[in-house]
Amino acid sequence: MNQQELNNKLAQIKDRLIDIEQKASNRIFLLCEAQNNFDVNKFLFEDVGARFVIATGIDGEDCFEVLYHYSYDQTGCMITIKAFIRDREQPKIQSIAPFLPGAEWIEREIHDLFGIDFPGHPDMRRLILADDWPQGVYPLRKDTSRTKPPTSAFVPGKACGQLGRTIEGVESSREVKE
Amino acid sequence: MRREMKKPVLVVGPMHPLQEEMECFHLTVDGEKVTDIDMRISYNHRGIEGISETLQFDQVPFLVSRVCGICSASHPLAYVQAVEEIAGVTPPDRALYVRTIINELERIHSHALWVGLAGHFIGYDTVFMWAWKYREPVLDLLEEITGNRNNYGNVKVGGCREDIPDELIPKMLKDLDEIEKKMDMLIKAVLDDPIIHARLKGVGILSKEDAIRYAVAGPTARGSGLAIDVRRDDPYAAYDDLDWNVITRPEGDVFAKAVVRLLEILESIKIIRQAAKKLPDGPVAIQVKEIPPGEGTGRAEAPRGETFHYVRSDGGNRPVRHKVRAPSFVNVPSFKASCIGSDIADVTITLAAVDPCYSCTERLAVVESKDHKVICDGEELIKLSREKTARLRGSKG
Q: Quick one: which of B29, B182, B207, B302 could link to B307 by a disulfide (CB 3.0–4.6 Å)?
């Protein structure tokens, strides 16, 4: 596909989008609500054949944004899906990892750093944060201090997913202690 | 009721046998075969993305060059390209060529480093010593241009900080001839060795379908037949004006990745030579006064694959969000596809074949893990790997 055909193809999913923004000839942004995100990602990955690059979590003014960046290598075009999560109290967005295992880690990272939940994710353990990092403190949210260490009490164990707990037959020594 | 047998789990890490960085692999094994793999990273997360939001736009390149010592040219380059996209500025031609030369020198030294380590882990210490010896002149060249062997800090928004002096060009071309001769010899020695063929072919295969599903980048993708290279697909710096090839191999095994890296060294030399000869005159930077509100994406082909930076500005003097994606972040999870079904002795080299870079992958306090019992440590794994090569050698010789 050349750039024109790509634009026409992207127009097919228009009913799921808020808007298509073309910031440059090779930079396209697809804006959508969180509930449509899964379909748009699936369309882009499976029908258009774009290559997944990474996702970015952003703490916006009144909502969270999750940006899924794709690269369409035939034309060198970056296509970014910008999904808005309006619910700030319990932010969630459906995981795309079931059809795109390359997105597993980044969704775990966004979950750690922003506290955005990804229903449907096959393995939502901690990836970035340490096991003794307190629950409910999300380092990259704008209301979290960048300079002071978190003050909440130490919450040991369970919810902090330790490696190996999913492997059959392996017991974490921490659980044994409890 | 009979109690079910527990499957044995082999713990590799948190000190990795190859890269001397912190990560941990749990290999579930059935005899000698690996049946499942689980990974744990982030023993050393430095919070680069968080720090970046507290720095001014012109300070960030120095921060991101410390994301990774080896990729210290491609991370700042991807970042400044993102900021230049927001500001709508194009740097002068000379700056684009200088960026190209530094990035390609970086690729040569990184690939040579990998070849050396890979050789060491399959029991070829001569390869290790040769590769690292011939890598030295490349680092010397980088030092002469930027003042540093690593962490060059040479790009800034609007151009480069240091120019390549014209009198350095003849010396650079002469050094390149010497480097090419030595690298050529190394490449032939590696690719002609029947034991290396027997040891690496068919090991740790990542199929093309898995490469797409795991969204891998760089030599890991190109070794699996995916012809992707940002330098060609979304050209930046001066790559559009130069004549070079994207190296791909269809096999997807460790040998294919080795071939891709080795031949890329020669392509890089070709690129530097052309760029040095065509180096345009003029200034090496323009002044960029302010960064307007907006968002930009920048990407550069680092030695390990595509480096991606996303920057958002609100018109102030600091980025409001800066996302860093290093290639290893997508390459490392692909072990799930490439390691399962292989022998334990092949795991070290399969893990090493994507040239994983954990400082890149993690970017935030060091956390020690006391939970893991080490059943078989890194050194024993390397011993296993080296013994396998020795066995092959014995049966051929």
A: B302
The larger pLDDT score, comparing residue B164 to residue B9, is at: B164
Structure tokens at A92: 């969630």
State how far the Cα of A161 lies from the Cα of A111, in Å rounded to an integer: 12
- A28 vs B25: which has the higher pLDDT: A28
Would the CB atoms of B36 and A26 count as touching at under 8 Å?
A: no
What is the predicted ipTM?
A: 0.87
- Interface contact flag, B47 A139, Cβ < 8 Å: yes
Whether A55 and A104 share a structural domain: yes
pTM of the model: 0.87
Structurally, chain B folds into a number of domains equal to: 2
Query: What does the CA dihedral B107, B64, B242, B181 come to, rounded to 10 degrees?
Result: -20
User: pLDDT (tens digit, 9 = 90+) per residue, A105-156?
Assistant: 999 999 999 999 999 999 888 888 877 778 888 888 888 877 776 665 444 4
CA distance A69 to chain B (A): 9
pLDDT given for residue B379 in this prediction: 66
Do B146 and B284 lie in one domain? The reply is yes
| B93 and B150 share one domain | yes
Instruction: Indicate whether B236 and B341 sit together in one domain.
Output: no
Query: At B342, which amino acid appears?
Result: S
Partners of B40 on chain A (C-beta within 8 Å) are 163-164
Of A170, A172, A144, A143, nearest in space to A156 by CA: A172
Among A63, A120, A114, A66, residue whose Cα is nearest residue A94:
A120
* Domain count across chain A: 2
B86 in helix, strand or coil? helix
B113 and B35, same structural domain? Answer: no
- What is the rounded distance in angstroms from the CA atom of residue B78 to the CA atom of residue B301? 9
Cα B41 to its chain centre, rounded Å, is 17
Pairwise CB contact (< 8 Å): B9 & A58? no
Assign residue B126 the CATH number of its domain: 1.10.645.10
* Domain span including residue B369: 9-45+330-396
Name the residue range of residue A137's domain. Answer: 129-178
Short-list A81, A131, A72, A74, CA closest to A103: A81
Closest CA–CA distance from residue B115 to any residue of chain A (Å): 26
